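We modelled the chain as a single entity of 215 amino acids. Its sequence is:
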Amino acid sequence: MKKLQKGFTLIELMIVVAIIGILAAIAIPNFIKFQAKSKQSEAKSNLKALFTAEKAFFQEKDRYDTGVSFVGFSPERNNRFLYATTPAAPTNPELRTGAVIVPPAPNTSFDSIEVDEFKWGAPAQAAALGGYQAASGCGYNIGLSNLADGTAVFTGEAIGNVDSDTQIDLWTISTASRNGGTACDETVGQKDATGAPNTTVSGGQPANDINDVNR
């Protein structure tokens, strides 16, 4: 006598599908958020490289410079972020639209590094990326400025989009310590040893002025 093979009932299959749907609803948003955070590591590492290049240039020339070619800052290709050193739209950006980067004219320097459009295509938020921030929510104007005692300060920024919305992700780094206040996303919710809000961003530390992941 042949044994009857039992299969799954429709109700059992519906329960399994429902469980998979619940797990997907929980896991997918967390995965997208984790993926977006991993993209921010590019901005942090490249801004630290920009800071190091500016400090080395200062040791040799006794001044900072907004020319990224002059200071020796050239991040690797495939960058998702735009890197700017001036508060206004740059006059001589390094365009990454082709397989080979065209070098700057003699005795000139790039004043920004554009998103690698050859790899990623033109950013959907190109207008937002072109809206260079004259002032940073984490303190100090982008580019060159001075403290009250005359100390020279350089502040650079990285602008990109780490997810599919229209909100930009804005990072800055400065050669001087800053007090970001509540306008700086990086410091919101952080506390110091006394329990008071910690709004200080040390010199050479990347600060997240606008966090695209949390908006």
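As a brief sanity check on the tokenised model: The longest strand covers residues 152-160. The chain has one domain: 41-214.
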